[in-house]
Amino acid sequence: MAQATAGEEWIADAELFVRENPELAVATAIALVVVLGSVYAFVRLRRARGVTFRRLIADAEEIAVLMHPNPDPDAMAAAVGVVELADQVDVDATIQYPGQIRHQENRAFRTVLDLELDRIDHVTDLAAESIVLVDHNEARGFSGADGVLPLAVIDHHPGDGAGEEFTDVRTDYGATASIVAEYFEDNDATPVPPDRHASETDGSYTLPTSAATGLLYGILADTNHLTVGASEADFAAASYLYPGVDQDRLDRIANPAVDAEVLEVKARAIAGRQVEGSFAVADVGSVNNVDAIPQAADELIQLEGVTAVVIVGERDGTIHLSGRSRDDRVHMGKAIEEALADVPNGDGGGHARMGGGRITPDIDPTDDSIEEAVDRDDLSDGLFRAMAGDV
């Protein structure tokens, strides 16, 4: 008779153990299942978010990448990145947005990178059932937005919105573009230098120079050139993107022609500012271009001795506020939110360094006149109290 192999002997011993200790054998089997399940869950949790997102959208036939109303460079950059990643897994993607693109910097971003952006007014205008929200976590700004259940959400703003299958909200990041840049790095995508073609690079995935340029500018725009609200991750993302950046196009986006009204509004803000300590509030009156208001805030915060500022302006009866802070005592988003808390139709919020808000008027359909939404002097006083923490 042939001698039994070591494997056969092990099996025989195992069978004997099970017959003699059935309860212990069952417990051992259950423990093994639990251990294997835990290992699998750990591996799933360890999987890079960018890989998870790529696999998710790869299962869709087409997606709509939805930006917030009046999108800024960070929103457009993140959208471009998502579309580029979708293209590399053979998924059709359309970038959409409600509102308008008015700010000269935003228009330059769109023109220089030759972006195809689709404006929408109603939920039925959405290009696909699978929707990815970028740079905001709850759809808004168009009819039927409340009924939108996004497939995925990618954002760096605080909020309660979530995606049905994927949610990646990192409030400690300075820009959504940094998160999307990480997705490419998670998938080992190689940034393509402006003087080379994607076919000249190795790897299954690439990051084209137009997308790299847009993502870097999105980071720079939302962190004031990596000086305000930037995290270590934003610096790391910028470093990863740099080899693929087209310096000429980056400069053309950063230095567009300035609208004459923007210069006028900045001048009115500087000349008409009220100052209490190191805080400033400026009411610039009526404006045609509401994007001039945040640009005036960016200008005023640079003045010597000013550490927090809010600019107030009005267009078609709606009062718009934009604030900036470089003062650790002033969380600008919370300050504006608190200042408008008791104001009818007032709504505000934002980050520690940057915030905004608006006050919409009550319109009587039987009367063509629009009543002032709030007393502007009282509003200025409330803003100063909120910045000082006296609310």
Automatic annotation (TrEMBL):
The chain crosses the membrane at residues 24-45. Residues 341-365 are annotated as: Disordered. It holds the Pfam family DHHA1. The keyword Lipid metabolism does not apply. Residues 63-196 form the DDH domain. Keywords: Membrane, Transmembrane, Transmembrane helix. The keyword Translocase does not apply. It comes from the Archaea. Gene3D superfamilies: 3.10.310.30, inorganic pyrophosphatase (n-terminal core) (3.90.1640.10). Residues 277-367 form the DHHA1 domain. GO terms for molecular function: nucleic acid binding. Residues 346-358 have a biased composition (Gly residues). PANTHER family: BIFUNCTIONAL OLIGORIBONUCLEASE AND PAP PHOSPHATASE NRNA. This is NanoRNase/pAp phosphatase, hydrolyzes c-di-AMP and oligoRNAs. It comes from Halopenitus persicus.
